[in-house]
Amino acid sequence: MIRLAVRVRREHADLVLAELLELAPAGVEEVAERAGVVEFAVYGAPGELPSLPDLRAAAGRALVEISTSEIADDWSERWRTFHQPILIEPPAGSQAHVSPLGIRPPWIAAEEAWGSDGVREIVIDPGQAFGTGSHATTRLCLELLLELVADDRARGPVLDIGTGSGVLAMAAAMLGFAPVVALDHERESVAAARANAAANHVELDVRRLDIRSAPLAFPTPSAASDASAAGAAGTSGSASAAGAAGGVVVLANLLAPLLEGLSGALPSAPAHLIAGGLLHDQVDDVARAFAQRAGLREYARRQRGEWSALWLVPA
User: Fold this and answer.
1) N or C: less crowded end of the chain, CB within 10 Å?
2) pLDDT tens-digit series, residues 57-95
3) pTM, whole model, 2 decimals?
């Protein structure tokens, strides 16, 4: 097994990652290095990895260094130790009862991972790549999603843009949102999201779509979500409850350039938009783009390490 590492300047890392994912759709490992440098790595047998000219072209002027190293034969077993269960707790002090959300690999039992019942869990094999919930951007989006659930009992449609492995979409479905539509432009990601949804007994509508070239359409509320919202509001199909059920939640854990493009591609202002994949110095620009083009304002912001996520609502 060969590990091929590409080190690039941090300010261009998100653009380079987008290019690398075109060359290695099975997944790219990201490692934070010294200040100003980010390392991306891909794994594979000799002959399966992207060529050096292609990597240099993908990195462009951001390139610092390309290196290769040989991985021990037992790497496929030892790497499991790096994938541990992840528990996302609901916001402290919430008046609504919201169960924690857990993500674990299949080789760790639920009892070992959580130690008790009451955790909604997603089981996902990191060997399928495309995102396992461990990255800070995914965790930030999940934290904001739980905060949204604690703040608003309505459960309408969800549109997950750039679903990858389907973690955010599956979490939304488990939390009671319906229908949940998940989009990705990579065939491999679409297949992985469908497989993960089936393995977790979650109903998702996974579609292949490139938001850079195809128009977006919001999913419409189902009869079940209308009834659920009406019950939560203590009414029987009132206009206010129907409006709550019809409020679309958009999840978009994307790179900053794609988020800025999305700000001008939304068919209308959703009820909520949770945007991840942002470095600290990109957040204000993305928030401004959504305010100017989509009529959305910042409601909350979360940070973890060098990453940030936004919760936006109509102005």
Assistant:
1) C
2) 988 988 889 998 887 766 666 666 667 888 998 887 666
3) 0.76
